[in-house]
Design goal:
- This protein is α+β, with helices and mostly antiparallel strands.
- Helix content is about 60%, strand content about 10%.
- It has 18 helices and 11 strands.
- Strands 3, 4, 5, 6, 7, 8 and 9 form a 7-stranded mixed sheet that branches. The protein has a two-stranded antiparallel sheet with strand order 1-2.
- β10 and β11 form a beta hairpin.
- The longest helix has about 40 residues.
- The protein is globular, with a radius of gyration of 24 Å.
- It starts with 8 loop residues before the first helix and ends with a helix.
């Protein structure tokens, strides 16, 4: 099959963004590793060349191994026997290939055996792996667990566990329970310190745990006796080699079947504290979830790419009424909108990844030395942008993945309803992306404060000031009008001082901001690479214009007396 990196020039475009120079400079600490490791880059060009070469390897493995195995993995699925999970045969082949290629610790520092990749190329790998098999991305990507352990674990824990991850072991985050899904403050799995064993003992049940029989677990547990909220929760590291945790069952899921979702039973499982007590949810899991949400945004983009590719290929081949269906305007409109949504969410994904890269690199440097005043200012600005854009990227990436998978089946017609075609699996796989790691409704909750405090609007005004090609002036004027409407509805809602009103229109306000931001990013992309993005920029801004008008009309016409109707419904 095709190399998934080489056949997607949009990835190379995003990898060449000007901010990458600053990101690499921070990540490589002025190339301090060049004299310690043979594979460490000598300079910026060497680093970029390294990213390209590794991503080509990822693309090759995705095209030649992971994608061809996806259908078999979906049919076979993992199995649970005697409390242990056995992967589908294709999944084992995939893991073996990625391990041998040294791709399991891409973002980890070289001293642990990693490649020290920034977030941008790492997320590109996740993008490609998700296109090949979204379920396998959950196993390979580790759901940001390694990054969380690196950020909050002590040096001894990093040396013992991250070296194993870079060598190919898997991780999981054990958060949810039968009575604690989105409401993680209700977690009750008990952690008790045993003086006799010199460690913590974990007892209880975890549910919906992705890759629950992994080698190394990050576990959210209640360490403070008598507490019932997030302040009584701590984070622990559990090593499967210690025993004490069994898989009760694997969930029978709609999609991503290669990724075992498990119910776990902890019985005096030995574990060690990660970080400080009482900060498990308040600090560590929040950081973990943000990283995982960016990964799901990448998963959504990868699924959107797969859906678009399948729809385009089928439309070119399928003949009806004496011609290929791609020649029919109704099909052309579907395909053009799918591509525009794909390009828009990919632009938002990599803009977010760049923000995360800068602030995380500066956070890491701050552990080694005191930041200069301008660095502290830079860190603060990019951290705020990363926090604002992450829920936006996860929301739109997952929603558009679902829409593109839906439209992919529509292009296939009746054939798309059959299991003979890939689009049926993509449709099932995409559905979870707007649910796990925080539903779309929770992403709205996370994003709305950046709407009401004008963080998004201020960033949009910055985008307006960026020079773009004159042929996009009309589109830019439309985006300015959309931004004005955003400002207008924000003022209307904030001035009402009605929390119910705000909650009911929050999703629409967040989406207005998202549409406007993605429109600007596409115009910037089209200015640099018109052959790749000009069509999508035109299609998306016109599509966004209509969506914004619908949202604004709803908010304008909304009256407080209607609140009771919504509550009753």
């Amino acid at each position: 099959m095709a190399n998934f990196f080489q056949d997607t020039p949009e990835l190379k475009h995003h990898l060449s963004h000007p901010l990458m120079r600053r990101i690499v400079e921070l990540k490589e600490r002025n190339y301090a590793d060049k004299d310690k490791y043979d594979y460490a880059p000598q300079d910026f060009d060497d680093a970029m060349d390294n990213y390209h070469r590794v991503l080509e390897i990822v693309g090759e493995i995705c095209g030649d191994i992971i994608a061809p195995n996806a259908e078999g993995v979906d049919h076979e699925g993992p199995k649970c026997e005697n409390g242990r999970v056995t992967y589908a045969s294709g999944t084992s082949v995939n893991l073996d290939a990625t391990r041998k290629a040294g791709l399991m610790g891409m973002s980890m520092p070289r001293r642990f055996g990693g490649l020290n990749f920034p977030v941008v190329p790492y997320i590109m790998a996740a993008d490609m792996v998700s296109r090949a098999d979204a379920g396998f991305e959950n196993l390979w990507g580790l759901q940001d667990c390694a990054e969380t352990l690196y950020e909050f674990g002590n040096e001894d824990q990093k040396q013992r566990f991250l070296t194993r991850v870079c060598a190919g072991e898997t991780m999981s985050m054990d958060l949810t329970e039968p009575d604690a899904g989105s409401d993680l403050q209700s977690v009750m799995l008990k952690a008790t310190y045993s003086e006799a064993d010199g460690c913590w003992l974990l007892n209880g049940v975890k549910r919906f745990i992705t890759n629950g029989d992994s080698d190394i677990h990050l576990v959210l547990a209640r360490s403070e006796e008598g507490t019932h909220d997030g302040r009584g929760l701590s984070m622990f590291i559990y090593d499967k080699r210690q025993g004490g945790v069994n898989v009760r069952r694997i969930e029978n899921k709609m999609g991503i079947k290669g990724s075992p979702t498990c119910e776990l039973v902890y019985k005096n499982a030995k574990a060690e504290l990660c970080g400080d007590r009482r900060l498990g949810l308040i600090k560590y899991v929040m950081a973990l979830m943000n990283g995982a949400r960016l990964g799901i945004a990448a998963q959504g983009v990868g699924l959107s790419q797969a859906a678009y590719n399948e729809a385009l290929s089928y439309a070119r081949d399928r003949q009806q009424f004496g011609k290929a269906i791609i020649e029919f305007p109704a099909v052309q409109e579907l395909l053009a909108t799918m591509k525009a949504k794909l390009d828009a969410t990919r632009a938002l994904l990599y803009e977010t990844a760049r923000f995360v890269d800068v602030y995380k690199a500066l956070d890491d440097i701050a552990k080694e030395r005191k930041l200069e005043p301008e660095e502290r200012q830079e860190q603060k600005a990019f951290a705020r942008l990363a926090d604002a854009f992450t829920p936006l990227s996860k929301l739109m990436g997952s929603e558009y993945a679902n829409q593109n998978a839906y439209d992919c089946i529509q292009v296939h017609g009746g054939s798309g309803f059959m299991k003979d075609y890939t689009c049926e699996r993509l449709y099932r796989d995409a559905r979870i992306t707007s649910i796990y790691e925080g539903t779309s409704q929770l992403q709205t909750v996370a994003a709305i404060r950046y709407v009401t405090t004008n963080v998004y609007l201020n960033k949009i005004r910055e985008y307006e000031a960026i020079p773009t090609a004159p042929e996009f002036d009309n589109l830019k004027n439309s985006l300015k009008d959309m931004a004005d409407k955003l400002g207008m509805v924000v003022n209307q809602v904030v001035e009402s001082k009605n929390q119910d009103f705000l909650d009911l229109v929050a999703r629409r306000m967040v989406e207005i901001a998202a549409h406007t931001i993605m429109g600007h990013l596409l115009i910037q992309d089209a200015t640099k690479s018109p052959d790749l993005f000009a069509k999508s920029a035109n299609v998306y801004v016109r599509y966004a214009e209509a969506e914004v008008e619908k949202a604004v009309t709803f908010i304008r016409k909304f009256r407080e007396e209607y609140l009771a109707d919504y509550k009753q419904a």
